From TrEMBL:
<dbReference type="InterPro" id="IPR016181">
    <property type="entry name" value="Acyl_CoA_acyltransferase"/>
</dbReference>
<protein>
    <recommendedName>
        <fullName>N-acetyltransferase domain-containing protein</fullName>
    </recommendedName>
</protein>
<dbReference type="GO" id="GO:0016747">
    <property type="term" value="F:acyltransferase activity, transferring groups other than amino-acyl groups"/>
</dbReference>
<dbReference type="InterPro" id="IPR000182">
    <property type="entry name" value="GNAT_dom"/>
</dbReference>
<feature type="domain" description="N-acetyltransferase">
    <location>
        <begin position="3"/>
        <end position="153"/>
    </location>
</feature>
């Protein structure tokens, strides 16, 4: 008797998969998430595996892969994005984890898909490496404080004094910020949980030519990934010139005073600077203190962030890419310099 790995039935095993996540994660997972993430993905339904203790037929772990459409050298290719890895605390030996993780690797080796990618935490990174998944790059986080209130309260531990100092400092922050330089030249629009339309397809087709590898950001994908998400509401900042979409930025409020950028896509650096200028200006009026963004360490958007005074934070995480050895683009996708990757491209 030992640990058996079987393929999950997304309908019949929904309760098992949700329970394993809820019992072994710090966040609560609901039924809407299961339906949305595993079954409504426009790139295809998820594939999952469940680890079962044969002694008492008890499910003790699970993981899934969700399909992602990636454009590589102009060709659209379905791959797997690994996620939702969860194991009962009493079974957290490398043996169970490796058995589960091998299922996705074996699928790639069997050419079900040509490659997989993942964004594991430090504990899961060990498992990926044990089954032969190499590190492609590092996800990094950049952040910028745009209002002093929260920082002053943390430093002084005195709300009234902190608010007085912030009342003096915040206007100065606004006056010296480079966002003041980027207020004209484009039509700016903000929309909450918008319906993404064909103009986003056109922008992706145009801009994706600059990158050797990039998750396809067409309207069906964006509508599923962001507008239909049961996890949070997103706001999309759009820039247009002569009524033509030339860039957008997607963000949500992690806290009332913290904004997280999930995705950005733009024609050129001038558009990118105007996107960031518009975002910073808007967030100052909404009493947001910090803007944060996660992205691959080779992403060209980092230069835009640095231009506006964003600084890199300490936390990092690894990106795994594992191709079938015979995949024609294996060398390309294993090199971080070839990717345009944002935090929105990872599992949710």
């Amino acid at each position: 008797m030992g640990i058996l790995i079987r393929e999950a039935d997304l309908d019949k095993d929904e309760g098992i998969m949700t329970s394993l996540l809820n019992e072994n994660r710090r966040v609560s997972i609901n039924e809407k998430r299961h339906e949305w993430l595993y079954k409504q993905n426009p790139h295809g339904e998820a594939i999952g595996w469940i680890a079962v203790d044969e002694k008492d037929d008890k499910p003790v772990g699970a993981t899934v892969v969700t399909p992602r459409l990636v454009r590589i050298k102009g060709k659209d290719i379905i791959c797997w994005n690994c996620g939702d890895f969860s194991i009962d605390k009493r079974y957290r030996s490398l043996g169970v984890a490796i058995k589960l993780r091998k299922m996705a690797r074996d699928g790639v080796n069997a050419e079900i898909v040509p490659f997989l990618y993942a964004h594991p935490n430090d504990h899961m990174l060990v498992v990926h490496q044990r089954v032969g998944h190499p590190i492609m790059g590092q996800m990094v986080r950049y952040a910028k404080v745009i209002r002093l209130n929260k920082k002053m309260r943390e430093m002084l531990n005195h709300k009234t004094l902190a608010d007085i100092i912030s009342g003096i400092g915040n206007p100065l922050f606004g006056l010296i910020g480079k966002e003041q330089w980027y207020r004209k030249g484009y039509d700016i629009d903000f929309g909450i949980n918008i319906e993404y339309t064909k103009e986003f397809d056109a922008l992706f087709d145009q801009v994706s030519q600059r990158y050797a590898a990039c998750v396809v950001r067409n309207a069906p994908y964006l509508n599923w990934r962001y507008s239909a998400s049961p996890l949070y509401k997103v706001t999309t900042l759009m820039l247009r010139r002569n009524k033509n979409l030339c860039g957008y930025l997607i963000y949500y409020y992690e806290e009332s005073d913290v904004v997280q950028i999930k995705d950005v896509f733009y024609e050129n650096d001038d558009v990118a600077r105007h996107l960031m200028g518009a975002l910073i200006t808007k967030m100052r009026t909404q009493r947001v203190c910090t803007i944060s963004v996660g992205l691959l360490n080779s992403n060209p958007f980092i230069e835009i962030l640095r231009f506006f005074g964003f600084s890199q934070r300490a936390e990092t995480s690894s990106v795994i890419v594992y191709p079938n050895p015979s995949f024609e683009y294996a060398k390309i996708i294993k090199d971080a310099k070839n990717w345009f990757m944002m935090v929105g491209d990872r599992d949710v």
